[in-house]
Amino acid sequence: MKRWLNNPVLTKEIKLRFRSVKSYIGMSAYLTVLGLLVLGYMAAYMSFEVNHAFQPTQSRDIFMMLCLFQLALLIFVTPGLTAGVISSERERQTLPILLTTDQSSATIIISKMIASLAFLLLFVILSLPLYAIVFLYGGISPSLVFMAFCLFVFTMIVIASIGVWASTIFRKTNVSIVTTYGIAFFITGGFAIITLMLTMFGDTYTVDGSNYPWPLLLASINIPIMLFFMFDPSALQALQEFAGWTISPWWFFVAFYVSLITLLLTIAIRKLRPRVKRKRTLAIEEPSPIITHIITNLARTNE
Known about the structure:
Keywords: Membrane, Transmembrane, Transmembrane helix. The chain crosses the membrane at residues 21-42, 62-82, 117-137, 144-166, 178-200, 250-269. It holds the Pfam family ABC2_membrane_2. This is ABC transporter permease. The protein has helices at 2-5, 8-18, 21-48, 59-82, 87-91, 95-99, 105-126, 128-137, 142-169, 173-205, 214-220, 223-231, 233-243, 249-272, 289-302. Helices cover 78% and strands 0% of the residues. It is built from 15 helices and no strands. It is mainly alpha-helical. The longest helix has 33 residues, at 173-205. The mean pLDDT is 82.
């Protein structure tokens, strides 16, 4: 563990991430957008009230909206910070120099990913004061806040692994970023649309009493739907009854994304260093002493 934290690649990446002026501008913009969205939602809600006042009973709705905004911003920001960690080194022609060091491929990939995740984690920590608005009115348990933040961190790891994989596979940073955004939007928005379509199909064409697990399986690997299930478990229970299963969908969620993260990082580590094909060379073996002795005697006899 100490070796991982003290490696020069991680130290260099963290210094570059946290000492840049662009980083502070990005964090300020992130908090500004998140704060304006929350305050705008509260202002819009109060404008429709008769007394133009915010009701404390709506604090749960504010918390849910804040979590959804936070999740959407993390899904939007993470590909931009992780999808160029290797391809940008390749474009600057510094990757061959990095590969000549004694750092292993796993150390380089994991260090760059940890540096990006540390920067993103700072975004989440800086947003904590905004959640104090919710606690002013109550109605939210600390365990729900903890579960929401765990889901944020897990989402960052999933999308960061996709970004690192794409950055290693594709040579151009633009292609890597577009690919990462496409996959991230598909597993968040695409799976939700497919889940809705399958649910409608099941309601219409399945026989009453028959099990239909596909909506539950797809909903279990969709991050926004699982966040929504944290606030309203009744929708999840309806899908479980429709599938005829009692197992928690969080097991599918964790198993699917842990397998995906492991697969993507393994491919990225194996593809980081180019493989050089070795040419077969014919080795000339020295004759044994017995054969040398026979050849020498034959030569003397001929003389």
